[in-house]
Amino acid sequence: MGGQNGPRVESGEGRIKEMTPFPVSEIRSRLADAVELAGGQSAWSRKTGVSRSVVSEVLSHKRDIPESIINALGYIVVPMCVPAKRGMNR
After folding, report:
1. pTM: predicted TM-score of the whole model, two decimal places
2. Which of 13, 28, 29, 37 is packed most tightly, with the most Cβ within 10 A?
3. Which of 76, 27, 79 is nearest to 55 (CA)?
4. pLDDT, tens digit, for every residue of 61-85?
């Protein structure tokens, strides 16, 4: 089900498009960039509806990244299986 470059998903018109997965941890740096572009945490929070305190805690590594922030940045979380190293589950 995955293409050469990553998982494949159906687009709205039935066409298949490639997605490039990346670690959820990378969301923190994307959040920091978005906050800076918006003019600060309060501005980004007003724009997206995500609590400023949650944004602050995520950026300071005091909190895991909630799905609300992932979605506000334009991403979704998709469960996927990746090959494990041999003997990893033993």
Report:
1. 0.69
2. 28
3. 27
4. 999 999 999 999 999 888 878 787 7
